[in-house]
Description:
- The complex is a heterodimer.
- By secondary structure, chain A is an all-alpha fold.
- Chain A is built from 10 helices and no strands.
- Chain B is of the alpha/beta class.
- Chain B has 2 domains: 8-225, Rossmann fold; 228-294 and 301-307, Alpha-Beta Plaits.
- Chain B has a 6-stranded mixed sheet.
- The longest helix of chain B has 16 residues, at 167-182.
- The interface between A and B is medium-sized, with 30 and 30 residues.
Amino acid sequence: xxxxxxxxxxxxxxxxxxxxxxxxxxxxxxxxxxxxxxxxxxxxxxxxxxxxxxxxxxxxxxxxxxxxxxxxxxxxxxxxxxxxxxxxxxxxxxxxxxxxxxxxxxxxxxxxxxxxxxxxxxxxxxxxxxxxxxxxxxxxxxxxxxxxxxxxxxxxxxxxxxxxxxxxxxxxxxxxxxxxxxxxxxxxxxxxxxxxxxxxxxxxxxxxxxxxxxxxxxxxxxxxxxxxxxxxxxxxxxxxxxx
Amino acid sequence: xxxxxxxxxxxxxxxxxxxxxxxxxxxxxxxxxxxxxxxxxxxxxxxxxxxxxxxxxxxxxxxxxxxxxxxxxxxxxxxxxxxxxxxxxxxxxxxxxxxxxxxxxxxxxxxxxxxxxxxxxxxxxxxxxxxxxxxxxxxxxxxxxxxxxxxxxxxxxxxxxxxxxxxxxxxxxxxxxxxxxxxxxxxxxxxxxxxxxxxxxxxxxxxxxxxxxxxxxxxxxxxxxxxxxxxxxxxxxxxxxxxxxxxxxxxxxxxxxxxxxxxxxxxxxxxxxxxxxxxxxxxxxxxxxxxxxxxxxxxxxxxxxxxx
Lengths: 243, 308
């Protein structure tokens, strides 16, 4: 059987997944969470602190990288293939002459496209309001982007792999990354948050009393994690039963 | 491929989910034209259809569609159209967007034209800007058929496609399936409604409890179903005399009196019984109050076929 060329297929899938992922409830809920960071950034900026960069960096790490980025990415990325898999619409994508990798790539791209502005815009405003200056803003954008790349891959695969991916994802975020990985060096290296925090630390110069990863691993590992997870999702999509 | 080769070959296929055996050692070939897959709910029809599309693989045996393995050959999907049983579509999309998406993913050169043509076939308006989430069940069903035929596939698999359609649309769809079959496409339609299948006027595969209970021309299977032993309840003011008259007329294998006014009649000649019962009542001076088949539902028909 000859391989079928599918011009426009990825773009069509990408558009479809954007429209199916973006629901009012998700956007409003996560934007409200982002707004919290803006208010806190404003408060830090007007508190006349001695070291606003340090305070800003700590807040971006503690709230942005630990909560907003992973939760927002989980909500959208796990739904990208998880929702069609559960509601039965996946069959309309699966039973087409389109490479499974393209379906997964479209899902990941759509998740990134939706999540990045919802998370990055409020965190950048927050960073600016804290008075941390350009360094903190650049560090925030870089750390958010690096971690989101990894989270998108992991959560797209998770959405395809398990039912109730949201619950499993929250367990990963809060139990593994938020608890286990904070007390153990080895576990910390298996947490996306560690790499994001290290990127933020390298750019702002602020250090944290927890595991830090040396460059260039801070950049490479999240990308490799994303690639590995998306490869797994592709394999899974090729082999799983479709209802 | 030559015309005589079957388009679908199912060979000794079994499928189970945990302890549940959904399909057990089923074999059949299907060629061009309309083939109906008949069976009660839970008979394994949908599982078979899903295997034909590669959506799930057989635990044992092989499924070949157009000579390929639908589970592994992604390119084969170009030649398969499926109307799945589930009602759901991409709810934010209009009918046109939904069918056009299918056309794009199939790499058609002019997806707009193809989508408009497919929607016209099922009598849907391409300019309807309402999302499919607002559609009735019947309208969704028609949109699902449109997305399945937009790329003009050789094999069209339809899982209970007449569900939710009004009588006029049912007739229209049946005509459409027959026309597609007449074009040389392999159209396989599942149903649990005997009358529906009768209208297809086609070859029938009867599935019961995961097994292929019968296959062949619909009329031959219908005769087989009619010739099975039937139990009929006859209510009369003189049941004992009526029972004797029915036995004398050799219209009953056995009779049993029940209550004060009822005779339960076992017969394997339904038409002979129909012709004899009025005459028997007249001879015995009985008034007939009720003649009702007790096991004429599809389930009992299927049970009989399995037990043959």
